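Input/output pair, single chain:
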Amino acid sequence: MPLPHPDFEMYENVGRTTEQITAQREDRPTAYDLRRWADHDAREFSAKLPGENAGQSIRDWTRQLHWAHTAAELDTVAQAVLSDAHSGLAELHLFLESVAEWCELNDEPSIAARYRQHAEELSELGDRLACLSEDHLAGIYRRTNRSASAPPPRAVPAAPAAPAAPARRSAR
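Output:
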């Protein structure tokens, strides 16, 4: 008869995460379990979704940063992603608001309120990022235009001209 491993009882949770151990103790599913169940239940719907992941366009804009050489070029890329109108940030805000509406229509008002709260936080973040962008541009343009706003340098007096040779008088 084989003897049980002496450490079996002590290390029965080896390889498990803290979340898995806690969830097992509290008899509830882990976040991974919930996602796995949702993926299974939505598999037919998921097959109809676009193949490209949602963050792909942001990655494309991030790659454009490698080509930016000036603050103005950087700002152009940043505004496409972060500005108020039709940017990635604005679309994400709209997405969160739409999720909140869906939750309300499906009798989940407390979850809807949380999505709306995050949409509002995202909007506030957008405002702070806009200020950061303006500060960045102002700093850059102040440095590059400093010479234009500074008083012109004093004119340096020209070196005295060499004395002219005395005029020769003609011998009469």
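The chain has eight helices and no strands. The CA atoms of residues 16 and 67 lie 44 Å apart.
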